[in-house]
Amino acid sequence: xxIKCLIIDDEPLAIxxxxxxxxxxxxLELVNxxxxxxxxxxxxxxxxxxxxxxxxxxxVLDGINFxxxxxxxxxxxxxxxxxxxAIETYELDVLDYLVKPIEFPRLMKAVNKINKRLNNTATKxxxxxxxxxxxxxxxxxxxxxxxxxxxxxxxxxxxxxYLKISTTSGKFIIHSTLSDFTGLLPERDFIRIHRSYxxxxxxxxxxEGNSIEIEGLRYVIGRSYIDEVKQKILNSSx
Length: 238
What we know:
26% of the residues lie in helices and 32% in strands. It is an alpha/beta fold. Strands 2-1-3-4-5 form a 5-stranded parallel β-sheet. The radius of gyration is 20 Å and the shape is elongated. The two termini are 39 Å apart.
């Protein structure tokens, strides 16, 4: 079942940006958009929504007072050009706070939080003791979003403005920075070993000197990363 979304923002351009992002994400369904919070409030009286992408500075009823007026609010993602309201909104149990202009990788990080909160990030493996199998969606061309299971990722390699994600089921090129993408991954499972590489710790076959071997290929550990990398690998060992 898809996650039902609502956008409330008085800027048409901001609505279009988030609308375009949502349309590219398989898990999300955009139900409606409103340019003022009063219309959004009336809509919520008769409709069930999972998450609202909400602006703060709006006429008549601003985003903060809109949140306070809700008895049983859905998940709330703030989308604002200003960051000074962050503390106040988090006290209202806002799930995430996105500062405009919003980039797609940052919105995907918010989507991962939505999935986690709704217990929708996992599929069950067909085995006796099923475990969560989290995934992430990445944009591999202008219209296609690809689901990649985290436990299939081997290496993420920086190619200037792009990344090559090598997995057990294939290789994919996406437009992102290594820092942004690494930030989306769980720290316990992945580590950056070089300015050009982030690797999956459980896919390491061997460590020798200043290099790591994965699937028969060697990756150099950067000088500034080597102490942290070896310590983390040591701590992850039984």
